[in-house]
Amino acid sequence: MKKSKLKLMKYVFIVATVFLYGCAANHESDFVGNAKMEESYNYASPTGVGTSSEDIQSPDNEELEMSSSELSRKLIKQGTLRYQKDSLSLEVSNIKNTCRKLGGFISAENVKSEYHERSHFIQIKLTNDKFEDFINMLSNGVDSFDQKDIHVQDVTNDYFDLEARIASEKKIELRYQSLLNKANTIKEIIELEELISKKRVLIESFEGKIKQMERQTALSTISITVYKPILHTEYTYIPPTFGEKFIKALGNGWSVVLWVVIAMANIWPFYIVAIVLVVVLRQMSKRNKRKRQIV
């Protein structure tokens, strides 16, 4: 009897242990799983964030948001101008004064002088509301443009989409933070910290794009090139006269004399060798004559 009771108690203990372990595992997986399900639910909503009674707005609020977004359009404005002027210095001074009047500044400047033209390049930055004013003021003093490119890019939708995405990601990040505070196991803490870290990287990436768009839409860019052509007279060949040829020939003859003198000066060692040979040969011939006379 005692042995059977002990076996029964062992079986009950094992069953209870397995049951409690299974409950703890289910709780842990449900804990992090609910957080991920909530994230997917937030992405499934039309605005990119989870809908609730607090998030639902009245039609009046929606109309106000639409009107405010229309008023604050995000535009990137760029212009490229190229034209000819007789006086580069006066035109460059006019450009700088116009830019200064409209509150702009010069971001780049370059002066170039080539065979066929002289040019002056200026790049200016202006607020978007002064872009058209500058173009119109500059066009009044120009007869015709060799190049006039105006480009306006509307990034309003991209801008507000990024703002909505950032708001959505921050709500999910806050939810992960609240779940992290309630976490009981190390596994739950590690998984939630990884999720929070990924959300933070994503949010910072979106915020960087927002800042870049704000910089691009805050100031417009206008690149101006003013140039002045350089006229060259054509060269006509005129054949030389007899007197010019004779004077040139005399000069060439004198050059030949100088060249010969210089060439002879360069071979002076051969002169010394030749003199030595002549002296030696004469001495030898004299000795031979004396020998013949004695014989």
Please give a structural write-up.
The protein is of the alpha+beta class and 295 residues long. 65% of the residues lie in helices and 17% in strands. The chain has a five-stranded mixed β-sheet. Helix 1 runs antiparallel to helix 5. The longest helix has 43 residues.
Alpha-carbon distance between the termini? Answer: 166 Å
Structural class, please?
alpha+beta
Helical element count?
8
Secondary-structure element order, N to C: HHEHEEHEHHEHH
How are the strands of the biggest sheet laid out side by side? 2-3-5-1-4
Helix content: 55-70%
Care to count the β-strands?
5
Silhouette? elongated
> What fraction of residues sit in β-strands?
15-25%
Report the radius of gyration as a whole number of Å. Answer: 48 Å
Low-confidence stretches: 18-29, 43-71
Largest sheet: 5 strands, mixed
Average pLDDT value?
78
**Multimeric organization:** single chain
Structure summarized in a few sentences:
The chain is α+β, with helices and mostly antiparallel strands and 295 residues long.
List the helices and strands and how they pair.
Elements: H1 2-44, H2 59-71, E1 75-84, H3 88-101, E2 105-113, E3 117-127, H4 131-139, E4 147-154, H5 156-182, H6 186-218, E5 219-229, H7 242-266, H8 268-294
Helix pairs in contact: 1-5, 1-6, 5-6
Question: What tags apply to this protein structure?
Answer:
65% helix; elongated; alpha+beta; five-stranded mixed beta sheet; 8 helices; 295 residues
